[in-house]
Amino acid sequence: MGQDVVLPCHLSPHRDARSLEIRWIRDHISETVHHYRNGEDLYGEQMGAYVGRTVLVRDGLSNGSLNLRIMGLRPSDDGQYFCTVKNADAYDEATVDLEVSATGADPHLSLGGYEAGGVRVLCRSAGWYPLPQLLWRDARGQHLPSVSQTHSQDQEGFFEIEGAVIVTGSVEGPLTCVVRSSRLQQEQESSLHIAAPFFHNAQPWMVALALVLMLLAVSIGLGVYLFRKQAAQSRELGKKDAELVQQAAEIAWRRCVLPHNRVKVTLDPHTAHPMLVVSQDNQSVRQEKQEQQVSDTPERFDYWYCVLGREEFREGRHCWLVEVEGEQLKYSRWAVGVARASVKRKGYFKRNPEEGIWAVQYYEGQLESLTSPRTSLSLSPVPTRIWVCLDCTQQQVSFINADNGVQIFTFTEASFNCMSIRPWFSLDTLGIQLCLRDSTPKTPSPAPRGSCPSPDTPQTPLLGPAGAAQE
Q1: Model-level pTM?
Q2: Positions in the chain short of pLDDT 70
């Protein structure tokens, strides 16, 4: 505890990693431990607990080493870490388990008074991590049962444990309290000898009364236990199922969002329908009651209440966050997605992939994909914060619930035909607005224009197996 540790991670086969994006995270995507990209350490998303305590070991980057040094180990550092790496075409991750341990102080023994025909003895020890075991032994080495045991954790994460035992006159010789760390296989112990005069005031009838009360409590408790056992098992199974669902959603979130460049998208007011008004910072759009006095240019939509984003993409992976705001969300109609830069602007046309639009729409209380025919998406509640993820390499468009990481829908084998793709938005309700959220402090630049990669381009494995770190 308090020392430095290096978490191991490396590329397999070995290659120069200095131009890659490397991110060490904890259990969730938002828990960034260290972030490195294009030769720079980025601290905008770093967790507060790791500020000033992490260093990416640069000496081995040219040989594919992604090792991370954590300085001044704390109990809160214990657990699982994910080493993630990506470039323009591939993404991979490996796990490293860090076990942090600390041995506490010698146990402190004290007398707690007469109880149940004997003397109550207390044992307390602090400064342990993880939570240790507390055991009692008599002079012959036989274990004695504890009558109570509690523990607490201080602000730094260290555990204090306290236990009690009732000692009667039949216990001869010294009484020993042992506090043991199962992780370190180390223990601390202290002993106490109670003289015979201490037991004179422990009346035998108190022992008999305690036994009667104990038997009565056991009888009542057994009935309650049998009644509640089935319900407890059902709750435990439900809890485990919920944890598995949450874990699967988190993995899907990392696999879908992390490999993409999170770009800052802006709206193009020159494409907005006259009934739509784009904010001055080009980050939100709303509908008005009357058409705006704007020029009727070839770029502007005149039938569907739509607007495009300024950015155009032809290669790489990109994602952006859209949030729906307003008081009448239940009765609103809106859609988000992508469209070909050459999508029709004038007159009626079907909004589907055949016309160059890949999107999901909320209409009459139901979320649906704008496929042909449309696909109803049963989600409750309907998400109002959605990641739009565009993968030009695989020709896919995915939509992710930003609140829980659950995948909403994915268009596979989208026919981009090597054309430029732009963000696309539609809004047909007063009192509602679509807002673009900047999800990252430092936004990567959009991918450069070029030829459209083949959809069969494989994702090359980047990471070799990582070991476990222990301190």
Answers
A1: 0.50
A2: 28-30, 169-172, 195-215, 218, 223, 232-234, 236-260, 328, 439-471
Nearest to 309 by CA among 348, 270, 344, 280: 270
333-370 tens-digit pLDDT = 999 999 999 999 999 999 999 999 999 999 878 899 99
- Residues ≥6 apart with Cβ < 8 Å to 178: 107, 134, 135, 136, 137, 187, 188, 189
pLDDT tens profile 33-70: 999 998 899 998 899 999 999 999 999 999 999 999 99
Task: Kindly provide the b/e burial profile for residues 25-42, where b requires at least 16 CB atoms within 10 angstroms of the residue's own CB.
Answer: bbeebebbbbbbeeeeeb
Say if strands 91-99 and 469-470 run parallel, antiparallel, or are unpaired: parallel
Other beta carbons within 10 angstroms of residue 295's beta carbon come to 8
Contact assessment for residue 465 and residue 92, using Cβ atoms and an 8 Å cutoff: no
